[in-house]
Design brief:
Elements: H1 18-25, H2 29-36, H3 44-57, H4 63-70, E1 75-80, H5 86-101, E2 105-110, H6 115-127, E3 132-136, E4 155-158, H7 166-174, H8 177-186, E5 194-199, H9 201-214, E6 220-225, H10 229-244, E7 251-254, H11 259-270, E8 278-281, H12 284-296, E9 306-311, E10 324-327, H13 330-344, E11 351-355, E12 358-360
Parallel strand pairs: 1-2, 1-3, 3-4, 4-5, 5-11, 6-7, 6-8, 8-9, 9-10
Antiparallel strand pairs: 10-12
Length: 373
């Protein structure tokens, strides 16, 4: 049996095809396909020859053509609001790890917190024939991503971050927290191709408040009111736990959900003569901005003001004092999102899963001065 000559790219051709690999390795196109997909019936020597020919020619599989032929691209589209977002980065790490275990690649794109951009990127993913789409901190629900005659791919929304109107913000600030939470839980049942995976924002905020109440704090404030769903849910949980304890919140401070936003809002709050002894911040970023404001005003955390954040981002344990926070299972959330998406390839979704938080007590929360330890 003669040995095929050393492969070389066909002259004048820009794209190397699977036929070129077959010709160079001396086997059929079908054998090349089986060899490159790890089919067990391909002999080791044949697989080695095919792989060497493919590498020498610079062959790259045409995933769009494969998706057209098989109906599966083995890829998942991942939309995040920003590649610099600490929370989404940890969720994405879990998504990539679980996708790799399942033999899927991940296509990553950033929406820059814009619902219209989410729509555009979803269209791009669909053109790439992804098997499904995961959206971290989605700003809009994806019901208009698909044409009426088009069968939607599975979509998993991780921590829906939709914008809220003035009416909903007013309800979060002043309406019955229990009734409002119940009403929000009943609305918008997911479509059969859609799953929602979220953090128990309200329950976690209530746990943070109960922690501070147990330390003797009753002058409580919330920093981080904002027109997005997680902030409103955390505010509702804050208000619910205060109401259950018969405590009137001292202040609810709106702010941009950034370090600077937290610093500005907390500076205004802590300059008041009736400043709080404890603050629940929307997240760790806002909490660290709040901590900076306290230090700039000559106040000490937690001696003058106790502080609790959310998310347990990596830097939370390294600020001074280390930040008490509610830990979200971020990587686990990412892994579960992939599992839900893979489930959606086989049967309907139409569900909403919620993950609990875990209070991590560190140095930023201590008993109020004069309260029993």
């Amino acid at each position: 049996m003669s040995t095929p000559s050393a492969p070389s790219a066909p002259p004048g051709r820009r794209t190397v095809t699977i036929r070129d690999v077959a010709r160079a390795s001396g086997v059929s196109v079908a054998t090349v396909t089986r060899a490159l997909h790890g089919h067990p019936r391909v002999r080791a020597e044949t697989r080695r020859r095919v792989e060497e020919a493919a590498a020498a020619l610079g062959y790259r599989p045409d995933f769009n053509a494969r998706a057209l032929a098989t109906g599966a691209s083995k890829t998942i589209g991942l939309l995040v609001p920003s590649i610099g977002d600490r929370f989404c980065a940890e969720v994405a790490a879990g998504i990539e790890a679980r996708a790799a275990e399942a033999g899927r690649a991940v296509l990553l794109a950033s929406s820059q917190h814009e619902p219209e951009r989410e729509h555009e990127l979803a269209a791009l993913f669909l053109a790439k024939r992804v098997d499904g789409i995961i959206v971290a901190a989605a700003r809009a629900e994806p019901h208009d991503w698909f044409r009426p005659d088009e069968r939607p791919v599975p979509v998993v929304l991780v921590n829906l971050d939709e914008s809220l109107g003035a009416h909903e913000l007013r309800r979060a600030r002043s309406a019955s927290p229990r009734a409002t939470l119940a009403a929000w839980a009943r609305r918008d049942p997911p479509a059969p191709w859609l799953a929602r995976l979220s953090f128990d924002d309200a329950g976690a905020a209530a746990e943070a408040v109960r922690h501070l109440l147990a330390l003797g704090h009753e002058r409580l404030a919330f920093v981080g009111e904002a027109p997005v769903r997680p902030a409103a849910l955390r505010l509702l949980g804050f208000r619910l736990a205060c109401a259950e304890a018969g405590v009137e919140p001292l202040a609810i401070m709106p702010c941009e959900l950034t370090l600077e936003g937290g610093r500005r809002a907390a500076t205004e709050l802590l300059r008041r003569p009736d400043r709080p002894t404890a603050i629940v911040a929307y997240d760790d970023v806002v909490a660290i901005g709040t901590m900076r404001a306290a230090h700039a005003l000559g106040l000490h955390v937690p001696d003058d003001v106790a502080l609790v954040g959310f998310d347990d981002i990596d830097i939370a344990a390294f600020v001074e004092p280390p930040l008490t926070t509610v830990r979200q299972q971020k990587e686990e959330m990412g892994r579960l999102a992939v599992d839900l998406l893979l489930r959606g390839l086989e049967r309907d979704l139409g569900l909403h899963d919620t993950l609990p938080g875990e209070l991590v007590v560190r140095g930023s929360s201590l008993p109020e001065r004069g309260a029993p330890a």
